[in-house]
Protein backbone atom coordinates (compact mmCIF):
# COMPACT_ATOMS: atom_id res chain seq x y z
CA UNK A 1 0.00 0.00 0.00
CA UNK A 2 1.60 3.24 -1.13
CA UNK A 3 1.25 6.67 0.38
CA UNK A 4 0.27 9.51 -1.88
CA UNK A 5 3.39 10.80 -3.59
CA UNK A 6 3.25 14.56 -4.04
CA UNK A 7 5.24 16.53 -6.55
CA UNK A 8 7.39 19.07 -4.64
CA UNK A 9 7.00 21.78 -7.29
CA UNK A 10 3.22 21.40 -7.43
CA UNK A 11 3.07 21.34 -3.63
CA UNK A 12 5.11 24.55 -3.45
CA UNK A 13 2.72 26.20 -5.89
CA UNK A 14 -0.31 25.23 -3.84
CA UNK A 15 1.31 26.50 -0.65
CA UNK A 16 2.17 29.79 -2.32
CA UNK A 17 -1.41 30.16 -3.56
CA UNK A 18 -2.84 29.35 -0.13
CA UNK A 19 -0.56 31.82 1.67
CA UNK A 20 -1.56 34.48 -0.86
CA UNK A 21 -5.27 33.81 -1.34
CA UNK A 22 -6.27 32.59 2.11
CA UNK A 23 -3.83 34.31 4.46
CA UNK A 24 -3.72 37.49 2.41
CA UNK A 25 0.07 37.70 2.41
CA UNK A 26 1.82 39.75 -0.28
CA UNK A 27 4.79 38.91 -2.49
CA UNK A 28 4.86 35.28 -1.35
CA UNK A 29 7.71 33.06 -2.52
CA UNK A 30 8.02 29.38 -1.62
CA UNK A 31 11.16 27.33 -2.15
CA UNK A 32 13.40 24.52 -0.93
CA UNK A 33 10.38 22.24 -0.77
CA UNK A 34 11.16 18.72 0.44
CA UNK A 35 8.94 15.77 1.31
CA UNK A 36 10.82 13.34 3.60
CA UNK A 37 10.72 9.66 2.70
CA UNK A 38 8.32 7.59 4.77
CA UNK A 39 5.89 10.41 5.43
CA UNK A 40 2.18 9.71 5.32
CA UNK A 41 1.17 7.26 8.06
CA UNK A 42 0.31 9.61 10.90
CA UNK A 43 0.42 12.56 8.51
CA UNK A 44 2.34 13.83 5.51
CA UNK A 45 5.21 16.21 6.17
CA UNK A 46 6.33 18.95 3.80
CA UNK A 47 9.39 21.08 4.59
CA UNK A 48 9.64 24.43 2.84
CA UNK A 49 10.91 27.99 3.08
CA UNK A 50 8.63 30.96 2.52
CA UNK A 51 9.08 34.70 2.21
CA UNK A 52 6.40 37.39 2.22
CA UNK A 53 6.25 41.14 2.70
CA UNK A 54 6.16 42.30 6.30
CA UNK A 55 5.90 45.74 7.94
CA UNK A 56 9.69 46.14 8.02
CA UNK A 57 10.55 44.30 4.82
CA UNK A 58 10.64 40.67 3.71
CA UNK A 59 9.67 38.08 6.36
CA UNK A 60 11.57 34.83 5.90
CA UNK A 61 10.44 31.60 7.53
CA UNK A 62 11.51 27.95 7.64
CA UNK A 63 8.21 26.08 7.81
CA UNK A 64 6.61 22.66 8.05
CA UNK A 65 3.25 21.72 6.59
CA UNK A 66 1.52 18.69 8.04
CA UNK A 67 -1.23 17.15 5.90
CA UNK A 68 -3.72 14.65 7.30
CA UNK A 69 -3.27 11.12 5.90
CA UNK A 70 -5.13 10.42 2.68
CA UNK A 71 -4.47 6.69 2.25
CA UNK A 72 -3.50 4.30 5.04
CA UNK A 73 -4.30 5.50 8.57
CA UNK A 74 -2.69 4.10 11.72
CA UNK A 75 -5.19 5.38 14.28
CA UNK A 76 -8.94 4.77 14.13
CA UNK A 77 -9.79 8.18 15.62
CA UNK A 78 -9.19 11.41 13.73
CA UNK A 79 -7.00 13.52 16.03
CA UNK A 80 -5.48 15.75 13.36
CA UNK A 81 -7.15 18.99 14.48
CA UNK A 82 -6.55 18.07 18.13
CA UNK A 83 -2.80 17.89 17.53
CA UNK A 84 -2.70 21.41 16.15
CA UNK A 85 -4.78 22.95 18.92
CA UNK A 86 -2.88 21.20 21.73
CA UNK A 87 0.47 22.23 20.27
CA UNK A 88 -0.68 25.81 19.77
CA UNK A 89 -2.07 25.99 23.30
CA UNK A 90 1.14 24.68 24.85
CA UNK A 91 3.25 27.03 22.73
CA UNK A 92 1.29 30.05 23.92
CA UNK A 93 0.47 29.20 27.55
CA UNK A 94 3.18 26.92 28.94
CA UNK A 95 6.91 26.65 29.38
CA UNK A 96 7.05 23.44 27.36
CA UNK A 97 9.41 23.91 24.37
CA UNK A 98 7.14 23.89 21.32
CA UNK A 99 7.25 24.92 17.68
CA UNK A 100 5.28 28.06 16.83
CA UNK A 101 1.99 27.01 15.27
CA UNK A 102 0.84 29.31 12.48
CA UNK A 103 -2.38 28.21 10.76
CA UNK A 104 -4.88 25.35 10.50
CA UNK A 105 -6.76 24.83 7.24
CA UNK A 106 -9.80 22.51 7.30
CA UNK A 107 -10.60 22.96 3.59
CA UNK A 108 -9.65 19.72 1.85
CA UNK A 109 -9.62 21.21 -1.65
CA UNK A 110 -5.97 22.29 -1.39
CA UNK A 111 -4.32 18.91 -0.70
CA UNK A 112 -7.19 16.43 -0.43
CA UNK A 113 -7.13 16.66 3.37
CA UNK A 114 -6.87 19.28 6.13
CA UNK A 115 -3.41 20.66 6.87
CA UNK A 116 -1.59 22.98 9.20
CA UNK A 117 1.59 25.05 8.99
CA UNK A 118 4.10 25.53 11.80
CA UNK A 119 7.55 27.01 12.21
CA UNK A 120 10.41 24.59 11.66
CA UNK A 121 12.68 24.17 14.68
CA UNK A 122 16.35 23.60 13.97
CA UNK A 123 18.16 20.88 15.87
CA UNK A 124 18.84 17.17 16.16
CA UNK A 125 16.39 14.31 16.70
CA UNK A 126 17.44 10.96 18.22
CA UNK A 127 17.09 8.31 15.54
CA UNK A 128 14.82 5.27 15.56
CA UNK A 129 16.59 3.76 12.52
CA UNK A 130 19.35 3.10 13.38
CA UNK A 131 18.45 3.16 17.07
CA UNK A 132 19.91 6.12 18.94
CA UNK A 133 21.74 3.72 21.27
CA UNK A 134 23.75 2.24 18.41
CA UNK A 135 24.73 5.13 16.16
CA UNK A 136 24.31 8.83 15.57
CA UNK A 137 24.91 12.08 17.38
CA UNK A 138 23.53 10.90 20.72
CA UNK A 139 25.52 7.65 20.74
CA UNK A 140 28.65 9.65 19.86
CA UNK A 141 28.08 12.20 22.63
CA UNK A 142 29.84 12.09 25.98
CA UNK A 143 28.03 10.47 28.93
CA UNK A 144 27.57 13.94 30.41
CA UNK A 145 25.87 15.16 27.24
CA UNK A 146 23.69 12.04 27.07
CA UNK A 147 22.64 12.60 30.68
CA UNK A 148 21.82 16.22 29.91
CA UNK A 149 19.60 15.23 26.97
CA UNK A 150 17.71 12.58 28.97
CA UNK A 151 17.13 14.89 31.93
CA UNK A 152 15.98 17.68 29.62
CA UNK A 153 13.52 15.25 28.03
CA UNK A 154 12.08 14.18 31.39
CA UNK A 155 11.74 17.82 32.45
CA UNK A 156 9.89 18.62 29.23
CA UNK A 157 7.61 15.67 29.99
CA UNK A 158 6.98 17.02 33.47
CA UNK A 159 6.27 20.44 31.98
CA UNK A 160 3.43 18.94 29.97
CA UNK A 161 2.02 17.26 33.07
CA UNK A 162 2.15 20.36 35.25
CA UNK A 163 0.41 22.62 32.72
CA UNK A 164 -3.09 23.34 34.11
CA UNK A 165 -5.76 21.93 31.80
CA UNK A 166 -7.82 25.10 32.18
CA UNK A 167 -4.94 27.15 30.73
CA UNK A 168 -5.11 25.32 27.40
CA UNK A 169 -8.45 26.86 26.38
CA UNK A 170 -9.03 24.29 23.66
CA UNK A 171 -12.10 24.49 21.39
CA UNK A 172 -15.30 23.20 23.06
CA UNK A 173 -15.60 19.41 23.11
CA UNK A 174 -11.93 18.85 22.34
CA UNK A 175 -9.90 16.73 24.78
CA UNK A 176 -12.60 16.31 27.41
CA UNK A 177 -11.99 14.62 30.77
CA UNK A 178 -13.95 11.35 31.29
CA UNK A 179 -15.29 10.40 34.72
CA UNK A 180 -12.72 7.58 34.84
CA UNK A 181 -9.92 8.57 32.45
CA UNK A 182 -7.91 5.36 32.86
CA UNK A 183 -10.89 3.08 32.22
CA UNK A 184 -11.80 5.23 29.22
CA UNK A 185 -8.27 4.90 27.83
CA UNK A 186 -8.35 1.12 28.26
CA UNK A 187 -11.71 1.03 26.45
CA UNK A 188 -10.23 3.18 23.69
CA UNK A 189 -7.38 0.77 23.07
CA UNK A 190 -9.65 -2.25 23.22
CA UNK A 191 -11.67 -0.70 20.37
CA UNK A 192 -8.43 0.15 18.56
CA UNK A 193 -7.24 -3.46 18.92
CA UNK A 194 -10.51 -4.88 17.58
CA UNK A 195 -10.23 -2.55 14.58
CA UNK A 196 -6.55 -3.40 13.96
CA UNK A 197 -6.94 -7.17 14.41
CA UNK A 198 -9.35 -7.43 11.47
CA UNK A 199 -10.95 -10.61 12.86
CA UNK A 200 -7.58 -12.18 13.75
CA UNK A 201 -7.49 -12.03 17.59
CA UNK A 202 -4.11 -11.29 19.13
CA UNK A 203 -3.87 -13.43 22.28
CA UNK A 204 -0.96 -11.52 23.87
CA UNK A 205 -2.73 -8.17 23.55
CA UNK A 206 -5.99 -9.66 24.82
CA UNK A 207 -4.16 -11.11 27.84
CA UNK A 208 -2.61 -7.71 28.55
CA UNK A 209 -6.01 -6.01 28.36
CA UNK A 210 -7.45 -8.50 30.84
CA UNK A 211 -4.50 -7.95 33.21
CA UNK A 212 -4.92 -4.17 33.00
CA UNK A 213 -8.61 -4.40 33.87
CA UNK A 214 -7.97 -6.79 36.80
CA UNK A 215 -5.16 -4.67 38.22
CA UNK A 216 -6.37 -1.13 37.53
CA UNK A 217 -5.23 1.10 40.42
CA UNK A 218 -8.09 1.87 42.78
CA UNK A 219 -7.51 5.62 42.64
CA UNK A 220 -5.25 7.88 40.57
CA UNK A 221 -2.29 9.47 42.32
CA UNK A 222 -3.49 12.96 41.41
CA UNK A 223 -5.93 14.89 39.25
CA UNK A 224 -6.08 14.24 35.49
CA UNK A 225 -3.43 15.99 33.44
CA UNK A 226 -2.57 16.56 29.81
CA UNK A 227 -0.68 13.53 28.48
CA UNK A 228 1.55 13.75 25.42
CA UNK A 229 0.91 10.16 24.36
CA UNK A 230 3.94 9.28 22.22
CA UNK A 231 6.48 10.26 24.87
CA UNK A 232 9.80 9.18 23.36
CA UNK A 233 13.24 10.66 22.85
CA UNK A 234 12.74 10.31 19.10
CA UNK A 235 9.86 12.79 19.24
CA UNK A 236 12.05 15.57 20.61
CA UNK A 237 14.21 18.13 18.84
CA UNK A 238 17.41 18.97 20.72
CA UNK A 239 19.72 21.96 20.55
CA UNK A 240 22.97 21.54 22.46
CA UNK A 241 21.45 18.53 24.30
CA UNK A 242 18.48 20.55 25.56
CA UNK A 243 14.91 20.03 24.33
CA UNK A 244 13.95 22.68 21.77
CA UNK A 245 10.58 21.26 20.71
CA UNK A 246 8.17 18.46 21.63
CA UNK A 247 6.67 16.79 18.54
CA UNK A 248 3.97 14.31 17.51
CA UNK A 249 0.79 14.77 19.53
CA UNK A 250 -1.59 12.38 17.73
CA UNK A 251 -1.96 10.30 20.93
CA UNK A 252 -2.64 13.25 23.24
CA UNK A 253 -5.23 12.59 25.94
CA UNK A 254 -6.28 13.60 29.45
CA UNK A 255 -5.51 11.16 32.23
CA UNK A 256 -2.92 9.95 34.69
CA UNK A 257 0.44 11.33 33.49
CA UNK A 258 2.05 8.02 34.39
CA UNK A 259 0.72 7.07 30.95
CA UNK A 260 3.61 9.12 29.57
CA UNK A 261 6.29 8.13 32.07
CA UNK A 262 5.44 4.46 31.56
CA UNK A 263 5.68 4.95 27.78
CA UNK A 264 8.99 6.82 28.11
CA UNK A 265 10.56 4.01 30.15
CA UNK A 266 9.02 1.18 28.10
CA UNK A 267 10.03 2.69 24.76
CA UNK A 268 13.65 3.23 25.79
CA UNK A 269 14.01 -0.30 27.20
CA UNK A 270 12.31 -1.91 24.21
CA UNK A 271 14.35 -0.08 21.61
CA UNK A 272 17.69 -0.53 23.41
CA UNK A 273 18.14 -3.56 25.67
CA UNK A 274 15.11 -5.22 24.05
CA UNK A 275 16.92 -4.94 20.72
CA UNK A 276 20.13 -6.40 22.15
CA UNK A 277 21.78 -3.01 22.60
CA UNK A 278 23.33 -1.43 25.67
CA UNK A 279 21.64 1.67 27.07
CA UNK A 280 23.72 4.78 26.61
CA UNK A 281 26.09 5.18 29.58
CA UNK A 282 24.93 8.68 30.42
CA UNK A 283 21.25 7.79 30.70
CA UNK A 284 19.83 7.67 34.25
CA UNK A 285 18.31 4.40 35.45
CA UNK A 286 14.59 3.71 35.60
CA UNK A 287 14.60 4.51 39.32
CA UNK A 288 16.56 7.75 38.83
CA UNK A 289 14.21 8.77 36.02
CA UNK A 290 11.16 8.14 38.20
CA UNK A 291 12.72 10.17 41.03
CA UNK A 292 13.45 13.08 38.68
CA UNK A 293 9.87 13.06 37.39
CA UNK A 294 8.46 12.86 40.93
CA UNK A 295 10.55 15.85 41.95
CA UNK A 296 9.39 17.87 38.94
CA UNK A 297 5.68 17.01 39.19
CA UNK A 298 5.09 16.29 42.86
CA UNK A 299 3.29 13.08 41.89
CA UNK A 300 3.73 9.48 42.98
CA UNK A 301 5.20 6.78 40.76
CA UNK A 302 3.92 3.86 42.85
CA UNK A 303 1.91 2.52 39.88
CA UNK A 304 4.69 2.84 37.32
CA UNK A 305 4.84 -0.95 36.76
CA UNK A 306 1.17 -0.91 35.79
CA UNK A 307 1.67 1.93 33.31
CA UNK A 308 4.66 0.21 31.73
CA UNK A 309 2.36 -2.71 30.94
CA UNK A 310 -0.23 -0.29 29.58
CA UNK A 311 2.48 1.36 27.46
CA UNK A 312 3.42 -2.05 26.10
CA UNK A 313 -0.20 -2.82 25.26
CA UNK A 314 -0.80 0.53 23.55
CA UNK A 315 2.43 0.35 21.54
CA UNK A 316 1.68 -3.26 20.60
CA UNK A 317 -1.77 -2.35 19.30
CA UNK A 318 -0.26 0.44 17.19
CA UNK A 319 2.32 -2.00 15.82
CA UNK A 320 -0.42 -4.43 14.78
CA UNK A 321 -1.80 -1.71 12.54
CA UNK A 322 1.54 -0.22 11.51
CA UNK A 323 3.03 -3.69 11.03
CA UNK A 324 0.38 -4.59 8.47
CA UNK A 325 1.38 -1.57 6.43
CA UNK A 326 5.04 -2.60 6.62
CA UNK A 327 4.09 -6.12 5.48
CA UNK A 328 1.96 -4.74 2.62
CA UNK A 329 4.96 -2.73 1.47
CA UNK A 330 7.04 -5.92 1.34
CA UNK A 331 9.54 -4.97 4.04
CA UNK A 332 8.72 -7.66 6.65
CA UNK A 333 7.17 -11.15 6.81
CA UNK A 334 3.47 -11.73 7.57
CA UNK A 335 4.23 -12.51 11.23
CA UNK A 336 5.69 -9.07 11.90
CA UNK A 337 2.52 -7.28 13.16
CA UNK A 338 2.22 -9.86 15.95
CA UNK A 339 5.89 -10.57 16.67
CA UNK A 340 8.21 -7.57 16.84
CA UNK A 341 10.38 -5.73 19.36
CA UNK A 342 7.34 -4.01 20.86
CA UNK A 343 5.20 -7.12 21.35
CA UNK A 344 8.28 -8.86 22.77
CA UNK A 345 8.67 -5.93 25.16
CA UNK A 346 5.03 -6.28 26.24
CA UNK A 347 5.58 -9.99 26.94
CA UNK A 348 8.67 -9.09 28.97
CA UNK A 349 6.98 -6.49 31.19
CA UNK A 350 3.97 -8.77 31.72
CA UNK A 351 6.31 -11.49 32.95
CA UNK A 352 7.68 -9.12 35.61
CA UNK A 353 4.38 -8.14 37.23
TrEMBL record:
Provide a Gene Ontology MF annotation, just one.
transferase activity
- What residue intervals traverse the membrane? none
Q: Name one Pfam family in it.
A: APH
Domain Aminoglycoside phosphotransferase span(s) in chain numbering: 36-265
In terms of superkingdom, the source organism counts as Bacteria
Write the record's keywords in alphabetical order, separated by commas: Transferase
What is the name listed in the Swiss-Prot or TrEMBL entry for this protein? Aminoglycoside phosphotransferase
Source species of the chain: Pseudofrankia asymbiotica
User: Which lineage ranks, top first, belong to the organism behind this chain?
Assistant: Bacteria, Bacillati, Actinomycetota, Actinomycetes, Frankiales
